Amino acid sequence: MALSKLDNLYRQVILDHSGHPHHRGELLDGTTVDLNNPTCGDVIKLSLKLDGDTISDIAFDGSGCSISTASASMMTDAVIGKSSSEALELAEIFSEMVQGQADNRQKQLGDAALLSGVAKFPQRIKCSTLAWNALKKALENNGSAEVANLSGH
């Protein structure tokens, strides 16, 4: 009984992030990366601003399933105020987690740790990692815009 109540709480948090995403929008003077997942049609435009090496602002727009949108919302909450290296480490932890390699480090993800159950649904992994992959590209490009297709990942 307690487990089903906990599962319901997790689902509610995910639905809340999907229905009322945090940091939704676009930053006009930041680094922008566009990614899409042709498997299911999810599209994201991620914008971020760096103050030195720190993510001072971040926003996303686009369209996608509830997992994709919730993951983007949770990712923005997790990385704002973090250094580039800290954000890249969180992206790696998230990627490992949704592939079933969970460990104590996932606590650092905040609400995004609630998406660990995606590992049970391999077809949803790309949905959950789309925003995180956009973040990696934005930080790796360090200021240049890019449009990418996720089909090869």
From TrEMBL:
| GO biological process: one example | iron-sulfur cluster assembly
Instruction: Spell out the InterPro entries in the cross-references.
Output: NIF_FeS_clus_asmbl_NifU_N
User: Pfam families recorded for this chain?
Assistant: NifU_N
Annotated NIF system FeS cluster assembly NifU N-terminal domain residues = 10-127
Q: What one GO molecular function would you report for this record?
A: iron-sulfur cluster binding
Record family assignment: Belongs to the NifU family.
Q: What protein am I looking at?
A: Iron-sulfur cluster assembly scaffold protein
Q: Which organism is it from?
A: Pseudolactococcus insecticola
